[in-house]
């Protein structure tokens, strides 16, 4: 049933994935649970810690997680990640995703370096007291079907393609019986009245509120009246009026897609070019030629008041055009592949339908984030204009890492340490700010609060892998969150 | 370097594997080396104690660090969880691991095979058993000391004396009607003395809801903060297809399936006089075939078996992680309120992870004339020539009332008369003629009180009738 949300090939991708979790803590196992339940292909837990007596934490967690879904293949490695990095860093190359939980800074950075170069996405998770932190590091993550919630429809009313024009022409609103008139799809109604409008307004679309209101009035006047001159109940006309706002938006390529089509890195297609970029290039060629500056038609229309026949006929006009456009794009794909000596069986039809929903996420590496030269000073200082912004929690987490580096423990683990550790942690905060040249104020309250946590994590949050870019902070005290690009 | 393949999918026999996992769970649960209270091994509540016993800059203004808070949390605090499904399983796990031990859980459903991919307290051997029972069993066995008490019942099966015993109530429901009922129940527990609310009669209600990648969590302090009914307009309208579309003008595959479900099934009774059962593959197969036939009549494509099942069962796709997030937020609030360690959420959190991760927190406001929590009597303004049907439509269609099948009674000539009641067939038949009668004909007077009962509220609602000219 969940596959309804991410579709059959989403489910396929999930089932082919092999995720590595480092450290089977409460947070780590919680994350895996939410991957195992919907049916990830395989997972491997890397953990050198022991639970009780002889039982290794990695093994215990693997067995209990495995029990949740027998279709998933679970493995474990009783080893610390540092040892693996020492002896066999290529171990990590096989994974679709590596999730590192409660890693100390030095291990985290080492691992990040290896994964970045190998092109393996790395998700860093930390829970510290009532604060949650996630950092995604992936050079490039392409999304074909981003399933946006509130995407605008692709109706082409401002630039109807030939088949749509013909179809609109086949209607004569002024000479229809009442039943047909009331069951004409609103798309047709808007198109017809747009023609009237064009005649009186020099072929210009209604642009501002005043003009759109006048256009709505034009449609309203088209509602049939009974013998007493009172307007009939024509729901399709009401729908047309309601949709004027969005239906007349000029057809254009979303900026996110423009960026993809114009991406520098993939201008030249080679035999190694990933499928996503071959498709992007093919779409670009379509746009520049057959598409006349527009993307392939999406082919779907929203449901609307109409009789079955009129609705289906209209829907088919859009559908067939979409299929036509999709096969043109396919031809471009084929010839691109041929030009580099490849022949490929391609699921391009599906991708064309979603050309407007292509997305690329590129994250900065951890190395860059932590480098004194490349640190995102602007983002940090501007957020800290509000000293209670979630950014302060980020700075505290970095400071706590520093504390661990210096004292080989976290602040405030034991009650007697809390008082002294507040001072020590403050020194870490200041040295961090100084090293990066950050002229911001971290309130003492936060330093106190982080000593209070004593490194213990109450599991607060768990997430599916989603391409946020690139740092997510969750504050359970206020139940707020923020995303930063660091 | 070697590494072990702990792949349980092959190799070990299922029985041996099951026993091993059980032993493992036991070993992990009880630390053999500790005398005295074998349940609380050294350091077990370390993490929680740090929040309860240490002062801090962000704690609730009334918070006082003390070693007694832990005792209250573990032994005394009584929590009621409503729903043992997607949210419920997560909630029970979170609360039990945090340290709450007196947990009661109500759920009227039994386990279905489609639940297994996210309601992780259940296994395939549990299919058919009550969710509350199985969930309680699992938690009690896995977390020593925890005492979850299950109820395989509807929330409406209990009265005020039951609900009054809890310190906090958390809802993981999938129905707005049930939420409103619970909301109403807690309102009815409030005690006002000389118009002043007695705070000890307040039972906080923490409500979580999810739908696909979206979810929300809210904290309701009955009588003090916005309640469910205050924000009724926030709930998206339930999708019900109009009958004329279903009957004569289908456009979407869903319309075709609804036609078969609502019209064809009761007419043709393919398996005898039995209701359509979404879990019976034979039933679904029949609906699927008939839907396809109808669809082809109208040249509609897209009827699939999966869609058929989804429409028949009114399935809203669910994601394990959304439930986890919302349940975590709710459990955090339970902890905050129970311990007074932090200021609770004030008071509504929205979550969406379709595109990146997005949360939005705001303070939902109380509605001045809220039908559930304001003490303001509700007015009904109708002309004496209006019919009872008009009032009925108002009660069901008005955005802030949204009643389902209201029963209307009034005192006329000193006698209590039922004007209309839908839920009992014989009474419905008897009172149906009243619907066409005018208010004047029914003997109603200006300023008179009408009592309305409905499934959305445990208490009868009183309305004052005002005649307009």
Automatic annotation (TrEMBL), chain A:
Pathway terms, separated by semicolons: Protein modification; protein neddylation
Cellular component terms per the entry's GO annotation: cytoplasm
Domain THIF-type NAD/FAD binding fold: 4-57
Domain of life: Eukaryota
InterPro entries recorded: APP-BP1, ThiF/MoeB/HesA, ThiF_NAD_FAD-bd, Ubiquitin-activating_enz
GO molecular function: NEDD8 activating enzyme activity
Keywords: Ubl conjugation pathway
Biological-process GO terms, alphabetical: protein neddylation
Similarity comment text for this entry: Belongs to the ubiquitin-activating E1 family. ULA1 subfamily.
Function in brief: Regulatory subunit of the dimeric UBA3-NAE1 E1 enzyme. E1 activates NEDD8 by first adenylating its C-terminal glycine residue with ATP, thereafter linking this residue to the side chain of the catalytic cysteine, yielding a NEDD8-UBA3 thioester and free AMP. E1 finally transfers NEDD8 to the catalytic cysteine of UBE2M.
Annotated PANTHER family: NEDD8-ACTIVATING ENZYME E1 REGULATORY SUBUNIT, UBIQUITIN-ACTIVATING ENZYME E1
Protein name (record): NEDD8-activating enzyme E1 regulatory subunit
Organism: Scleropages formosus (Asian bonytongue)
Organism phylogeny: Eukaryota, Metazoa, Chordata, Craniata, Vertebrata
């Amino acid at each position: 049933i969940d596959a309804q949300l991410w579709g059959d090939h989403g489910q396929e991708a999930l089932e082919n994935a092999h995720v590595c979790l480092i450290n089977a803590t409460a947070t780590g196992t919680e994350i895996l649970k939410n991957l195992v339940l919907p049916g990830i292909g395989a997972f491997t837990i890397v953990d050198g810690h022991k639970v009780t007596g002889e039982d290794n934490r990695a093994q215990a967690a693997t067995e209990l997680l495995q029990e949740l879904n027998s279709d998933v293949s679970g493995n474990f490695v009783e080893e610390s990640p540092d040892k693996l990095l020492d002896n066999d860093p290529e171990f990590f190359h096989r994974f679709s995703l590596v999730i590192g939980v409660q890693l100390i800074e030095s291990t985290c950075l080492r691992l990040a370096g290896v994964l970045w170069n190998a092109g393996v996405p790395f998700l860093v998770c930390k829970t510290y007291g009532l604060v949650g932190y996630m950092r995604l590091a992936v050079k490039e993550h392409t999304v074909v079907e981003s399933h946006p919630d509130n995407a605008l429809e692709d109706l082409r009313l401002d630039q109807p393609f030939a088949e749509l024009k013909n179809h609109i022409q086949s209607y004569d609103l002024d000479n229809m019986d009442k039943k047909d008139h009331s069951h004409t799809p609103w798309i047709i109604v808007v198109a017809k009245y747009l023609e009237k409008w064009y005649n009186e307004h020099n072929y210009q679309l209604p642009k501002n509120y005043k003009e759109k209101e006048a256009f709505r009035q034009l449609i309203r006047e088209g509602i049939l009246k009974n013998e007493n001159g009172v307007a009939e109940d024509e729901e399709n006309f009401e729908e047309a009026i309601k949709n004027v706002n969005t239906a007349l938006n000029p057809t254009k390529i979303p900026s996110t897609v423009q960026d993809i089509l114009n991406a520098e890195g993939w201008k030249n297609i080679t035999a190694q070019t990933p499928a996503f970029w071959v498709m992007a290039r093919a779409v670009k060629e379509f746009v520049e030629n057959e598409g006349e500056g527009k993307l392939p038609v999406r082919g779907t229309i929203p449901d609307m008041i109409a009789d079955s026949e009129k609705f289906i006929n209209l829907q088919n006009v859009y559908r067939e055009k979409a299929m036509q456009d999709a096969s043109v794009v396919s031809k471009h794909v084929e010839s691109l592949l041929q030009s580099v000596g490849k022949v490929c069986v391609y699921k391009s039809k599906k991708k064309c339908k979603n050309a407007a929903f292509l997305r690329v996420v590129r994250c900065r590496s951890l190395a860059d984030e932590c480098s004194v030269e490349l640190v995102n000073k602007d983002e940090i200082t501007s957020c800290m204009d509000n000293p209670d912004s979630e950014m302060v929690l980020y700075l505290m987490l970095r400071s706590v890492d520093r504390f661990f580096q210096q004292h080989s423990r976290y602040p405030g683990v034991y009650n007697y340490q809390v008082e002294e550790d507040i001072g020590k942690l403050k020194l870490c905060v200041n040295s961090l700010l100084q090293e990066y040249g950050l002229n911001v104020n971290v309130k003492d309250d936060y330093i106190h609060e982080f000593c209070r946590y004593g490194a213990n994590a109450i599991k607060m949050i768990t997430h599916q892998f989603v391409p946020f870019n690139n740092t997510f902070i969750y504050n359970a005290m206020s139940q707020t969150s923020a995303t930063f690009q660091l | 370097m070697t590494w072990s393949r702990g792949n349980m999918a092959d190799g070990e026999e299922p029985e041996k594997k099951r026993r091993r996992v059980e032993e493992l769970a036991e070993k992990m649960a009880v630390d053999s080396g500790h005398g005295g209270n074998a349940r609380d091994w050294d350091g077990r509540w370390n993490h929680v104690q740090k929040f309860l016993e240490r002062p801090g800059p962000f704690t609730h203004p009334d918070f006082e660090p003390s070693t007694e808070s832990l005792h209250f949390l573990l032994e005394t605090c009584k929590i009621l969880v409503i729903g043992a499904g997607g949210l419920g399983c997560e909630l029970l796990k979170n609360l039990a691991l945090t340290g709450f031990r007196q947990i009661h859980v109500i759920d009227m459903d039994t386990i279905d095979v489609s639940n297994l991919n996210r309601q992780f307290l259940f296994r395939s051997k549990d299919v058919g058993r009550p969710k509350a029972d199985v969930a309680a069993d699992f938690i009690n066995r896995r977390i020593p000391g925890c005492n979850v008490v299950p109820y395989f019942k509807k929330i409406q099966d209990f009265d005020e004396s039951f609900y009054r015993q809890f310190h906090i109530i958390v809802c993981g429901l999938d129905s707005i009607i049930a939420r409103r009922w619970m909301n109403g129940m807690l309102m009815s527990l409030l005690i006002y003395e000389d118009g002043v609310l007695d705070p000890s009669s307040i039972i906080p209600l923490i409500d979580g809801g999810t739908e696909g990648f979206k979810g929300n969590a809210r904290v309701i302090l009955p009588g003090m903060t916005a309640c469910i009914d205050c924000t009724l307009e926030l709930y998206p309208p339930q999708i019900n297809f109009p009958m004329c579309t279903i009957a004569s003008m289908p456009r979407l595959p869903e319309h075709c399936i609804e036609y078969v479900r609502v019209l064809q099934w009761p007419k043709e009774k393919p398996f005898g006089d039995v209701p359509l059962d979404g879990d019976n593959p034979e039933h679904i197969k029949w609906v699927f075939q008939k839907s396809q036939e109808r669809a082809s009549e109208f040249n509609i494509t897209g009827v699939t078996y999966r869609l058929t099942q989804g429409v028949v069962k009114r399935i809203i796709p669910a994601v394990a992680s959304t439930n986890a997030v919302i349940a975590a937020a709710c459990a955090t609030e339970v902890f905050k309120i129970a311990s007074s360690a932090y200021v609770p959420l004030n008071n509504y959190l929205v979550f969406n992870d379709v595109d990146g991760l997005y949360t939005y927190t705001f303070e939902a406001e109380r509605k001045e004339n809220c039908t559930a929590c304001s003490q303001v009597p509700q007015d009904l303004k109708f002309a004496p020539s209006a019919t009872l049907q008009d009032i009925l439509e108002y009660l069901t269609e008005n955005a802030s009332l949204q009643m389902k099948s209201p029963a209307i009674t009034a005192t006329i000539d000193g006698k209590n008369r039922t004007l209309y009641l839908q839920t009992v067939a014989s009474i419905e038949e008897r009172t149906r003629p009243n619907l066409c009668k005018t208010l004047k004909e029914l003997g109603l007077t200006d300023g008179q009180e009408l009592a309305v009962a409905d499934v959305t509220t445990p208490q009868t609602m009183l309305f004052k009738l005002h005649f307009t000219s």
